[in-house]
Amino acid sequence: MDYRDSMSYDLHHMKTPAQSLIDILDLPRKGERLLAKGQSLFCAGDLVHNLYCVKSGEIQMVRNLGDGTTVLLYVGTAGQTFAEASLFSETYHCDAVTNAETLIYLYDKAHVLDILRNNEKKAFDFMAHMARQVMELRGHVELINVRAAHERVLAYIQSQMPAGSLHTTIAQPWNCIAAHIGLSPEAVYRALAKLQHDGKLKREGKRIFLSRVP
Length: 214
Prior knowledge:
single chain, Jelly Rolls, four-stranded antiparallel β-sheet, Arc Repressor Mutant, subunit A, 38% helix, alpha+beta
C-alpha cells in the first residue's frame, strides 16, 4: 500500500458517522455565546473553563507564529466539538476565531472531567473519540505533504466523497479549503483548472464529479 492508499483509507475512515461527544457524555449545556465574524472565542494563554460545540457557523483554531505567519490547526463546523485536549490543560495553546457569525454551546470543564473520572464507559467512549481525531490529524498531515498542488486538491476532494462514490458537494468556500490544505486560493483555483483540463474532474456549481479510473 503506497502513501496515497494509506491516506485515502484514513480520510475516508474519519468520515464514518460518529456519535456526538456531547451525546456520548450526556452533557448539560452551561450556556451559549453568539460571536460575530472575526471575533475570538479564546486566545492562547487564556484559562480553560469550558468544552465547546459549534451549533451554527464556523470557527477556526489558529496558532500565530513568531515570524508573523498564522497556522490553521482546525476548522469546526455545526455539530462539532473542538479543543477537547485543552480539558487537560490549564491554558489554551492557540486562538479560536470565527469565520462567520457563529453560535457556540458551552459545557463546564469541571463537570466533563468529573464524568471521565467516575464513568468508565463514558471515559472509554471519550478515548475512542480522541483516537478518531488522531486519525484525522494523520490524514491531514499526509494530505498537506502531497507536494503537487493539483494532486493535493484531488486528494482533498476524494477525502470528501463517500467510499466508492465519484461525486460530492463541496459546500465550503475554496478560499477556506485552501487555508485548510496549506495552499493559497490562487494555487487551488489553478489546480482545479488543471484537473478539469486534464479530464480528472467536472464541476457543476458546488457539485464535483471525478472521472472513473480505467
